[in-house]
């Protein structure tokens, strides 16, 4: 029986329409090639819209001392030197142009008193570096790219899930197979090059800032196609998610609150962050409440800071662990978090700089943040690891398969600095677009999916309807319990070993998952598909976490609390072995070239 | 969200309050109201209840959602007849002694259950001339916060399309052929009022977007979850610009002789 499906043919296919995917598609189109942009949601709803605080770029508008070198160094330090140095260098150098370009496309950033793009402070950034629009920077960014994109000749395919990448006999990528979420009908995209821009995998955890879309699709598609996944153990738990009410547990509270002077206290009223500053960076932060207050006063007055910044602006990994420890030791708030207080400031200013936080807490938690503190706690937010790519072209180990944004690895190392993801997706979205164009131009005639490929992919998709038994929601809940409790913010050998074997069992249940109903907009069926990806990525995370017997950035081991010298020189690499099993290996971390190393030595003098 | 559902189940003490939901289920022309009982958690919103139904009672209930924090505008529906974001409609603000009615947006064609076909909005957006900067942009553009406060208000729009759903020109009179709707009036306003924009969209606003069809009942402003003053700050100033251009007798005369546009 032949299978009904529609076909679309383009030079380049981009999967995922958040900031990275949109920016990549815009670049492909600007270079004169045809491009399809596929997304699971409606256009403009991707997680980029949730980014709040800003995009980091060394424009030097507020702190003129800033430049690409300090941004590069902050990124490497924040990533505990697990970053690919070349990614960090490209990012720091190119981010300012990417921000200015957005203005040309209609973005309206908040202004400095002299009319330039304003910049705010954020954790781990030495200077005020985040271009922002109140606390809805991501919305501004995605809307700007969306409006640019729809006038750039991009073909947009909304509410479409890709279930498989297609390759030819030479191992080159040739397109993808998927289905319309609305109708359930099949669709084939033929393309010379494919760019994955599908974001993270937060929905494998119980408490997360991520929406339903973030199920590790790109990582899993790439893994199945033969690409390598790198440093999957580094998961960012954002320190400030909402903790109450239960329905919004995990929803993001922007780091912008701390950037604007927000203070963290425990239930005893202690400003605990002073005691959690790591020795290596302690000298960069205020020593006393008075010094921290002076910094905030200077920021509020719009002046360059003359003293050191408050301890709340330490890196995310560190603040998240501090809150975790305070709660664990019995000094948590009524709903098990820490107090984050901005209510000491002028209410009108708070509402102007943090409008969506004001509304979010007022409407969802009955808290007026201009009068009372927020309750916050760690929430799974971001995957630093991802598909291993060449930093300059963003191509993976699979010919013609590219990746950019959160789904790719390299830039952030063991811990991402706030604000570096919005600039990441602009810089590397563009580079992936350029890389794919370069590759596609040399490819020759556009490939075409074979009937066998389509049949195999369609059968795999429809299989859950043929089975009877356990549905996807229950398996998903069990997966989230395992990841939350055993592969969470602090980890141990015992928990991780248990997680690895329990995830193997989950994998077997997913292979037998069953769904009911029609193929038309059926969330149960959609989840069954997403679940496959979540399990693959979860297994990769647990394996990498088990093997990294040290604590570094977003990976904390209770049983190995310190850095390990040998592990500081290797990246973790996951790939699918010839026998179909998941393989773990270590690869040497690319060494910093002498001229970049010098930047750090100058500091020590 | 599944974790909410888990919390509901594990916290059950037997004393839990139960809310009754009447949810529209169906495809195309066919459909019916189905009743569901959902245990109430503190702070619970209507979207949590829809997820509970998906997770425990009806896994194929179709509903769009993303951020769950009123930032993406995906979970639009009509709750007790009022166009709302389900993620910010709190159960403790509703009368739980009565069933809560959850219906899809009425202005757009139904796909299934609570999901409607909103693609028309994307087509309208495509017809709007994009931001048009001057030819030579200096490296650092200078313009001031006061100049952009107003358009930043418009740019808060999360494209939930609740204003489009409630606008009687679109909802009752079905004039999608002649009227772009409030969402795109503020999109047009954000471009027209941008201090650096060089394009002129007034002819489009008058003739294609059909601004004359709006008779400023302000229903759109009332349902906007971002509290954008769509009518007062967006539509009325655009109407004034159109009037100044096309209905000023002196300008009309000058235009006849080709002195002005």
Question: How would you portray this structure in words?
Answer:
The complex is a heterodimer of chains A (605) and B (261). By secondary structure, chain A is α+β, with helices and mostly antiparallel strands. Chain A has 3 domains: 5-237 and 381-451, FAD/NAD(P)-binding domain (3-Layer(bba) Sandwich); 243-379, Succinate dehydrogenase/fumarate reductase flavoprotein, catalytic domain (Flavocytochrome C3, Chain A, domain 1, Alpha-Beta Complex), CATH 3.90.700; 463-566, Methane Monooxygenase Hydroxylase, Chain G, domain 1 (Up-down Bundle), CATH 1.20.58. In chain A, α9 (347-353) packs across α10 (355-365), α13 runs antiparallel to α14 and α14 packs antiparallel against α15. Chain A is built from 16 helices and 18 strands. The mean pLDDT of chain A is 96. Chain A is 37% helix and 16% strand. The longest helix of chain A has 25 residues, at 523-547. Chain A has helices at 19-30, 68-78, 85-104, 137-150, 217-225, 256-259, 289-300, 316-328, 347-353, 355-365, 420-441, 451-466, 472-486, 493-511, 523-547, 594-604; strands at residues 5-15, 35-38, 55-56, 119-120, 130-131, 155-157, 160-167, 173-180, 186-196, 229-230, 235-242, 263-265, 338-341, 374-383, 386-387, 401-403, 570-576, 582-588. In chain A, the strands form 4 sheets. In chain A, strands 1, 2, 6, 7, 8, 9 and 16 form a 7-stranded mixed beta sheet that branches. By secondary structure, chain B is of the alpha+beta class. Chain B has 2 domains: 2-116, Roll (Ubiquitin-like (UB roll)), CATH 3.10.20; 119-256, Fumarate Reductase Iron-sulfur Protein, Chain B, domain 2, CATH 1.10.1060.10. Helix content of chain B is 37%, strand content 13%. Chain B has 11 helices and 7 strands. In chain B, the strands form 2 sheets. In chain B, strands 2-1-5-3-4 form a 5-stranded mixed beta sheet. In chain B, β1 and β2 form a beta hairpin. In chain B, α1 crosses α2 (46-56), α4 runs antiparallel to α7 (182-192) and α7 (182-192) packs across α10. Chain B is elongated and about 75 Å long. Chain B starts with a helix and ends in a 5-residue tail after the last helix. The chains are: A alpha+beta (605), B alpha+beta (261).
